Amino acid sequence: MTLQNALTGINDHARGALPAEVFAVLDADRRRAGNPDVSQVGARIENFELPGADGKLTSLGELVAVGPAVLVFYRGQWCPYCNLTLRTYQQEVLPELEKYGATLAAISPQQPDGSVPFEDLAFPVLSDVGSTVARGLGLSYPVSQPVREAMEALGTDLEKVNGSWELVHPAVVVVDQDRVIRYIDVHPDFVTRTEPVEILEAVKSL
């Protein structure tokens, strides 16, 4: 089964489990038109330091110290699509990356303590509170009022978990040791994500 098939299954379940009016708002949001103005291959990312759940800072310089880094931008641990994606990457991507001296790190705008449920992951899960890094890449965007009301109806208050009503487009960014973007795949439709095989091909091609 591909990652996309599994994500579609989660969405099909949500369609039947969520209140119809709430699902309709979220479904319309993921299908919104237009492409975000994001950084392109060849752009250089400024070094950054972000905390994990334990407060330990991890820098981009550390991540690319011995090879390329795969940066996975996700919405938050409250997002079931993100949970499945990160755990799929741990199983299918992380073991292969080690063969190429590459590292993997996940980044979200969620407060550091919000990543505690990801303690079982064997790669850094970092908090970009305020979306400084994501905004620099063009991945950050404000949540619309209808979506905000739908999320609040489901008990998700981004003001508490993220510090603001701002989200990021899920994305995978591969950077080389010079912190230059060599691959970027952005998903405004949050039910879709980068397949593991695509990530590995991007790293292998460096």
Automatic annotation (TrEMBL):
The keyword Amino-acid biosynthesis does not apply. Keywords: Antioxidant, Disulfide bond, Oxidoreductase, Peroxidase, Redox-active center. One of its GO terms (biological process) is cellular response to oxidative stress. Belongs to the peroxiredoxin family. BCP/PrxQ subfamily. Residues 39-206 form the Thioredoxin domain. The keyword Oxidoreductase applies. PANTHER family: SLL1159 PROTEIN, THIOREDOXIN-DEPENDENT PEROXIDE REDUCTASE. Thiol-specific peroxidase that catalyzes the reduction of hydrogen peroxide and organic hydroperoxides to water and alcohols, respectively. Plays a role in cell protection against oxidative stress by detoxifying peroxides and as sensor of hydrogen peroxide-mediated signaling events. Its EC number is 1.11.1.24. One of its GO terms (cellular component) is cytoplasm. It is an enzyme of class 1 (oxidoreductase). It catalyses: a hydroperoxide + [thioredoxin]-dithiol = an alcohol + [thioredoxin]-disulfide + H2O. This is thioredoxin-dependent peroxiredoxin. It holds the Pfam family AhpC-TSA. GO terms for molecular function: thioredoxin peroxidase activity.
